[in-house]
Amino acid sequence: MSLTHSAHAPRLKRTLLLFLGFLFAALLLQTVSATSARADEVGTEYEFYFAGNVKYDSEPLEGVTIFVEGNGYEAEVDTAADGKWKIGVPEKGTYTVTLNEETLPEGVIVAEGSASVEAEIKLTNSKIVNYFLGEGVRETTSFWDQLAERIVNGLNFGLLLALAAVGASLVFGTTGLSNFAHGEMVTFGAVMAYVFANVLQWPLWSALVAAVIVSALFGFTLDTGLWKPLRRKGIGIVQVMIVSIGLSLLIRYVFLYFIGGGTYQLPGAGEARITLFGTVALSVTDMVSMGVSVVVLLAVAWWLLRTRTGKATRAISDNPSLAAASGIDVDKVIRTVWILAAALAGLAGILWAYFRPGIKWDMGTQILLLVFGAIVLGGLGTAFGALIGAIIVGLLVEVSTLWIPSDIKYVGALVVLIGVLLVKPQGLLGRKERIG
Amino acid sequence: MSSSNAAPLRPVKSTGLHIGDAAPGVAKVDPIIIADNVTRQFGGLKAVDVEHLEIPRNAITALIGPNGAGKTTLFNLLTGFDKPDTGTWVFDGAQLNGVPAFKVARMGQVRTFQLTKALGLLTVLENMKLGSQKQKGEGIFASLIKPLWNKQEEEIEERALDILARFKLDTKKDDFAASLSGGQRKLLEMARALMSQPKLVMLDEPMAGVNPALTQSLLEHILDLKTQGMSVLFVEHDMQMVRHIADWVVVMAEGRVVAEGPPEDVMQNPAVIDAYLGSHQDVDLGVVTGRVAGEITPEVEELLEEIDAETGVDHAIDQPTAAAPEKDEDIK
Amino acid sequence: MDWGSILSNTASWLISPETIAYALAALGLAVHFGYGGLLNFGMAAFMALGAYGYAISILTFGLPWWAGIIVGCLASVVFALILGIPTLRLRADYLAITTIAAAEIVRLLFTTQVFDKVTNSADGLGNYHAGFRAANPFPEGTYGFGPWTYNENGWWVRVFGICLLAVAVLLVWLLMRSPWGRVLKGIREDEDAVRALGKNVFAYKMQALMVGGVFGALGGVVFALPSAVVPSVYVTSLTFFIWTILLLGGAATVFGPLLGAVIFWVIMGFLSNVLPELASSGVLPFMSTTQAATLRYILVGLALMLIVIFRPQGILGNKKELTFVK
């Protein structure tokens, strides 16, 4: 059975990871008793927290919104009548704590320093963050500047999403499988990058390249050990889909087993941003990430359009029996597609680990739905549709935060997915199905 | 010609169905379907483009034509399984375009499929009962109280067993439909269609993949439908079979109706010979495909050789059980 | 190792509220998938709507507890409508993708700060027990024997849950022996064929989605009755556990979901006791107790794969009546 292969690579460094896992062990077993928290406190189930007291002229201010973001976690809270607030966070680390100036009374701003500060919980379990308020006129970022910033971020996210979506779409096209374990293939790339870069301390570039290669091997192993035997057995597509669900659960908890419930950062994550124009600021990592995505996507497009195997892949998506009859080695093409899809997913995982930022055992479940959304939006089984769909989903997720709170930013994308099914079920580039 | 010894049955042909000359779109004395200007486009291909077509009532009409002629697409359109780009049609006095498939069936126009759709994991009897219309127990609330539908269920079962006995499937009534042979499934599908007491039965290639042993019985059942007052429209490739049982033939090619008329006349039509029969019009295709026992004439052998050369398949004439290959005429 | 307490802890899972709740949800999924062929991967959302519908009705609107249950069921019916209208006309895998996305939308909406006043966001809701407990017919005290010893509230939740389950099982049995069930099973096999026989396939699928959804909501209510409603429970993993239970017991059977839920929870209960014990006593080297607890979820994934590949009809299913036809 192939099932053990998923755990194969992490096992190399089992002892070390075990030690880490032990340190960071966070439990998913939700035995959270509902301690009905007050409005000025959130995340009280966690032992680490940020707290503060918002005052102006020694008078406490009520209803000022404080927002904490970092390590893949985000929460916000309004201050109480006494001006106090408290936000629990799942783990130690550096977070961005932001005071929303729009919720301050007229004419009051954060006088010293920024409304958004980096705060770290290091030795103790808590950190007090206070702001110095004073009189003044708020400098607001114009709507268009904000929009430009979100669009650039959205493009970045959309491009890395496209890497995952194109792979999943090729798999769907050639095998008919909606692969529910694709999210875990994304996480796999990120976790491998972590193993090579952080645990083994390889130089960053070689570590990331190695992670993509191991991801490709992972895809090969899954195909040889699992998908191919299932194809041989002639198992129905719904059955295979549910097998992929079992596989997704299995791999997901294998990650939890080895790396624990914490969030890990790759080297170079969260570095300073360089202002490009207006308020649009990108880190070097962001720029490299976008560049890599574009180059890889172009390469995949070239492969699909120009190479023999690429053309064969499209032929199989179009009509498998005809393709087989015309002498295409369907099995070989499908194996290539699995390897390619896994490598792309692994790369997407690394880039996503920088974008979020952070690596977590269940990060794949989040992106899986966006990948599905992108595929359906573009039209099931068309690789180029998935590409366009992914970029639209990425833009949608980021730009929608101009109007909706960021903790439901994925809702917008998923609602659009359902809306598309209502209006144009075949997707943007898909064809109408025929019955009969 | 070797057709005569294949047909012990001498069906009574209905004649005088049309008014005026038998040309495409000719008016019928008593039409059950009148279609106008029905078109369906797939990409750049016009799969169906029918200006005017009338299907006669209480007669057996065959819809023939080469692969890709749009026969199945026309079937799908008429039964509401596909939506036309343009066109209107009337069934038994009721406007049918835009009506969903299940309502079309309720109005008494029931169809079968080219690839048989027996409900494999239901028993033969359950398949039959499903065909019956207006069942009280099919409402979600009524279904919970058995006394409400028990009596009707018994009547349905009686009728189902009756039809099954006619189709010689009564011994199989408790078997899963999946365990039947291809031909038996075709029979079951037709029997199930009859449970809905239709006015018009539309059969999409009823003979495809049927064991020759069952061919005769299928033909008799189709003829039987007419004697029971139903109308039949069927798609078929086997010209010999068409000749045996059809009262009227409609020929399609490239989406259009190119000819129609009584079978004997249509066979002589140059347009038909050109479009469909090619150079082998005098060969009994039933013999070629092994469905009908017949003399292997030199012409048949010649055609077989030609087919073998094209497909690379060796046709064994002495083993006629080999099912005719599934014809994939779907326009992808 | 204290085998006595391990076995006793394990046995208590036999009639735990979790077992009953999962059995109800799995029964709903049997209606969806086992009988109707609908690939619903959003069962967690139906459960969440039941649980939140119950809790919010009581806490925010001050409704009595039984009205809360009705509200939960109605919420799931509305959800089924919203979900079904765009997708039930489409191919099966569209329903799969849409339901899993919709379930995630529901969870995010219950988690977000935006509706904090009503949902209490990530912390969830509690303290809605007064009404239900006031209706408790059991006098105060501790009853039962061996592993099954609970106080009056513990028994009230269990008895109420088992009654709901019994009614649900009866309903499914009645439905599936009727002509309605015959149509539904026909749709599972080939919906075009059923359509050609004059049945309104869309309406049947919608009804099935609603019926199964209500069972899911009831499962959510039973899950919420003894403790609290926390949004982080209603993740996709929950849906997948329900699928595992259904396929374990037998998808197209009335008692399969029940049996599956009991086996699932008894084994999970057993492993949650045994694995950490084994790890701490050194039988499982290189494994922390936390890892040992994670191991059982890995085993669930493995079990799901093996069941689907080697025994897709489940324990109670008829080998001929495999439910995977497409």
Taking all Cα atoms into account, the compactness measure Rg of chain C is 20 Å
- What number is the mean pLDDT of chain A? 81
Which stretches of chain A of 5+ consecutive residues score pLDDT under 50? Answer: 1-38
Low-confidence stretches of chain C: none
Q: Gap between N and C termini of chain C, in Å?
A: 48 Å
User: What string gives the helices and strands of chain A in order?
Assistant: HHEEEEEEEEEEEEHHHHEEHHHHHHH
Helix and strand element order of chain C: HHHHHHHEEHHHHHHH
Largest interface between protein chains, with number of residues from each side: A-C, 72 and 72 residues
Mean pLDDT across residues of chain C: 90
Number of helices of chain C: 14
Descriptive notes:
The complex is a heterotrimer of chains A (436), B (332) and C (326). Chain A is an alpha+beta fold. The model of chain A is unreliable at 1-38 (pLDDT under 50). Chain A has helices at 8-11, 14-24, 143-175, 182-199, 204-233, 237-259, 284-306, 308-318, 320-325, 330-355, 363-378, 383-399, 409-423; strands at 41-42, 48-53, 55-56, 59-60, 65-70, 73-78, 84-89, 93-99, 108-112, 116-121, 126-128, 132-135, 273-277, 280-283. In chain A, helix 3 runs antiparallel to helix 12 (383-399), helix 4 (182-199) packs parallel to helix 6 (237-259) and helix 4 (182-199) crosses helix 11. Chain A has 13 helices and 14 strands. Chain A starts with 7 loop residues before the first helix and ends in a 13-residue tail after the last helix. Helix content of chain A is 53%, strand content 15%. Chain B is built from eleven helices and ten strands. Chain B is globular. By secondary structure, chain B is α/β, with parallel strands linked by helices. Chain C has 326 residues and is mostly helical. In chain C, 69% of the residues lie in helices and 2% in strands. Chain C contains 14 helices and two strands. Chain C has helices spanning 3-12, 17-35, 43-59, 65-87, 92-111, 116-119, 130-134, 152-176, 179-189, 191-196, 201-224, 236-249, 256-280, 289-310; strands spanning 142-145, 148-151. In chain C, helix 2 (17-35) packs across helix 12 and helix 12 crosses helix 14. The relative contact order of chain C is 0.19. Chains in contact: A-B, A-C, B-C. At the A-C interface, helix 2, strand 6, helix 6, helix 11 and helix 13 of A face helix 4, helix 5, helix 12 and helix 14 of C.
